[in-house]
Amino acid sequence: MMTMMISNLTSLISSEANAAVAGNLVPRQLFFLHDIQILELLVALCVFVTIHSLRQKKHHGLPVWPLLGMLPSMTLVVGFQTNNLYEWLTQVLCRQNGTFTFKGPWLSSLHCIVTSDPRNLEHLLKTKFSNFPKGPYFRDTVRDLLGDGIFSADDETWQRQRKTASLEFHSAKFRQLTVDSLLELVHGRLLPVLEDSVKHSSIALIDLQDVLLRLTFDNVCMIAFGVDPGCLRPGLPRIPFAQAFEDATEATVMRFVTPACLWKAMRYFNLGAERKLKMSIKGVDKFADDVIRTRKKELLMESHTSSVGDQKQRSDLLTVFMRLRDEKGEGFTDKFLRDICVNFILAGRDTSSVALSWFFWLLHIHPEVERNILQELRTIVEARSTNDINETELVFSPEEMKKMDYLHAALSEALRLYPSVPLDHKEVVEDDVFPDGTILKKGTKVIYAIYSMGRMESIWGKDCREYKPERWLNPKDGRFLSESAYKFTAFNGGPRLCLGKDFAYYQMKFVAASILYRYHVKVVDNHPIVPKLALTMYMKHGLKVTLHRRT
Fold it and tell me: Which residues of the chain have pLDDT under 70?
């Protein structure tokens, strides 16, 4: 009896336990099924968002992602893809007929209109110039490097700098200074440095971009500041300022593709690119401060000896600005003079040297253009009298430079395809409408893509990507034909047209002619040619070449 009771009790407990297990198993299965349903919903939502975002590409030019806007597409290009950002932007603009709206992340400052339409450029650079200043966003982004200099300034600050610099650039004394300083640098330093590289080894490599940057840096310092830093010398000494300036421009550009709240936070905590920028600007400031301090001492000494009457007055730009007085009769601060220095260094050091680097690379892959330039140079030399021809010390005169139409065209064509400043920025003051119908709201940022303009079939025809200097020449007499500044915007346009345009062409022609007449420049095989993301379009890996004397 007892045995039966125990057996029944055991069976009861077992059945209850099985029931409990079964009861627990059912909710767990339901919970598992619930998880699967949530996962399926999330996957379906992601697929829907992805498809919807990708469909936006047809209408907006790029996929538009929730909260992130178009930033992921640009991040892929900047961070992972081998194609350069400028080429990617060109492809988008071609798909969108020359203008599109870039949608940045929600609540970010990256929203802007990007255009390469000449009609729009004439509208913002000339017709409605006052409605499209550089704007507070641009000034805030570049202020640490450029301060209140001519590149970032607006209104009265810009007008005063522009007027003073314009008067100086067009003075006979300044023009003579540019000719003399360039002659000294090319024949006293550049050619000896190049010849030295040839003598030491027939296969010696030289970074031509680095050499040209040194040349133009010495040149701009001599004509703008009356200082000779001696960058271009045998042995090519390391110049800390040059590296600091390049690093600073690169880090500054990264701000334009980074949400303002992020780069400002990085600046506050001294992290990443902002840490690099801070260190680089210290090097830039040190150079500028040294130049200003030295000039003040020299001007003080001149004032003490001025009674003699034979003291030659300086005509460099820095001295001119130092002698100016404001409405209160006071001189400019060292900070303002520093900003002037840095801005003119950016204008004079980088633009011409970068343009020449791309020019020599284009000649390497287009030898027929090099042959045509050589023919033009030899024709000019042969037109001299016999007594004026000295192959060793041959110097091209300013009058001969004016006759180099084909060289002028070849340089312009290089600038069309590889402008020294690939992108520029404006901001809308009052609501407006572009000629192509794009609506512009107050505060909208406008990016005009100069690099992309040279690759638009609607502007330059189906051969727009080809390097053809002949497109710049009059077919009847072979003379150079200029183009509208709103079609060829390498030197900007309207009231902000580059003051140094004539000097830049003279400088580039003189340097190119002096090198090409003596040497064949051969780019090293398999040398990577990629533009660097910076304010000016450096070659990311330089331009490694070998030089071969002409026979």
Answer: 1-37, 39-71, 73-83, 106-109, 201-204, 304-313, 386-392
Nearest to 145 by CA among 292, 276, 294: 276
One-letter identity of residue 173: K
Evaluate if pTM is beyond 0.90: no
The answer to whether the CB of 292 falls within 8 A of the CB of 332 is no
Comparing C-alpha atoms, which of 538, 455, 541 is closest to residue 89?
455
Q: How far apart are CA 546 and CA 202, in angstroms?
A: 8
Identify the pLDDT of residue 82: 47
Rounded CA-CA distance 220/213 in Å is: 11
Burial class (CB in 10 A: 0-12, 13-18, 19+), 368: exposed
Mapping DSSP to helix (H, G, I), strand (E, B) and coil, where does residue 523 land?
A: strand
519 and 550 Cβ atoms separated by less than 8 Å: yes
CA separation, residue 220 to residues 30, 45, 170, 363, 389 (Å): 77, 58, 16, 26, 30
The neighbour count for residue 523, using CB atoms within 10 Å, is 17
Question: How many beta carbons lie within 10 A of that of residue 389, not counting itself?
Answer: 10
Question: How many Cβ atoms are within 10 Å of 436's Cβ, its own excluded?
Answer: 13
* pLDDT value at residue 205: 86
- Pairs from 376-383 (Cβ < 8 Å, separation ≥ 24): 376/404, 376/405, 376/406, 376/407, 377/404, 377/407, 377/513, 377/516, 377/517, 380/404, 381/517
pLDDT of residue 57: 58
Nearest CA to 406 among 480, 356, 515?
480
For residue 99, report the phi and psi dihedrals to the nearest 5 degrees. -150, 135
Phi-psi region of 333 (alpha: psi -120 to 50; beta: other; left: phi over 0): beta
Q: Report which of 96, 101, 108 is spatially closest to residue 68, judged by C-alpha positions.
A: 108
State how far the alpha carbon of 454 is from the alpha carbons of 306, 477, 540, in Å.
53, 25, 20
- Pair 124, 132: CB distance under 8 Å: yes
Q: How far apart are CA 539 and CA 545, in angstroms?
A: 13
Query: Do the Cβ atoms of 407 and 376 come closer than 8 Å?
Result: yes
Cβ pair 209, 545 in contact under 8 A: no
Mean pLDDT, rounded, of the chain? 84
Amino acid 22: pLDDT: 46
DSSP string for 82-138? SS-HHHHHHHHHHHTTTEEEE--STT-S--EEEE--HHHHHIIIIITGGG---HHHH
Report the C-alpha gap between 497 and 505 in whole angstroms: 14
For residue 546, the 8-state DSSP code is E
Do the Cβ atoms of 260 and 139 come closer than 8 Å? no
Contact 401, 514 (CB under 8 A): no
Chain mean position to CA 77: 17
Strands 112-115 and 445-449, sheet pairing: parallel
Q: Which residues, in sequence order, are bridge partners of residue 69?
A: 65
